[in-house]
Amino acid sequence: MFTPKPLFPGARVALIAPAGPVPPERFGPAVRAVEELSLKPVIFESCRRAHGYLAGDDRLRANDVNAAFADREIDGILCIRGGYGAQRLMNLIDWNSIRRHPKFFCGYSDITSLHIVLNQQCGLVTYHTPMPSTEWYRGLDEYSAQSLKKVLFGGKIGELQNPAILPVKTLVGGCARGILTGGNLSLVSSSLGTCYEINTKDKILFLEDVGEEPYRIDGMLNHLKMAGKFRDCAGILLGSFTDCSAQDPERSLTLQQVFEELLVPEHKPALMNLACGHSMPSMSLPLGKEIEMNSISGKITVLEG
């Protein structure tokens, strides 16, 4: 895996929207939030476009991804938001060019589709982080801001620790070591059966989601289970599952029951409640980096070098 050069004060960063459109009222505050980190935003066209639920048509959004990587004057790439639509770009992106011009790349949610391919096919470490028009524009809490700055500016990440008031929970005890992969559960699940399918062999699989009822989480986890993705992985990290409670609790399993019934029988070290996903505070994760996890003590460490 290739770790891209970190950003630095004055770095020129491309702002792109590979998925959904930026709400107009958030655009200005998002750009200012990037500038407040001493970065120089370069606004790509997709950030200003809307095509229904997409930030411009597929060709325009893919061209922005390709151009941002190919431009030698760009030091890094920030996805300004998620939404929906990144999967529509897979066959339009020049992955060979990206291999030749690797650089810092971050985002989350629908951006999971890009993370998987950048990690697996381009050998590029990428970063699962909050995004400018989703969280940055409102002002980040201290925990989230410090975690973000570590990955942006190349600080040693070391141990991945939740805020003290939000302890992680053991689902299955044990120790594991492997490359960190994954992201949003719905995007990970929908990659199956495509040429961009996630590879979990001997890796630590991270999953999070938002706005899905327990039966939907059940279905997506079961899809991964039947595809052997939990059998193959070394360990499992479950992040935030925000607004994923049942509308009719009396006729539903809880998420805890879903995790226990589908994941515990896999006998893989597993932790719950990692502070990462569609929630704040949220840590930033280095996808493609090797990590060690002890799900009994709750210790997770990024292995440097």
TrEMBL record:
Keywords: Carboxypeptidase, Hydrolase, Protease, Serine protease. InterPro entries: Carboxypeptidase_A_C_sf, Class_I_gatase-like, LdcA_N, Peptidase_S66_N, Peptidase_S66C, S66_fam. Residues 177-293 form the LD-carboxypeptidase C-terminal domain. Residues 13-128 form the LD-carboxypeptidase N-terminal domain. It holds the Pfam family Peptidase_S66C. It comes from the Bacteria. Belongs to the peptidase S66 family. This is LD-carboxypeptidase. It comes from Caproiciproducens faecalis.
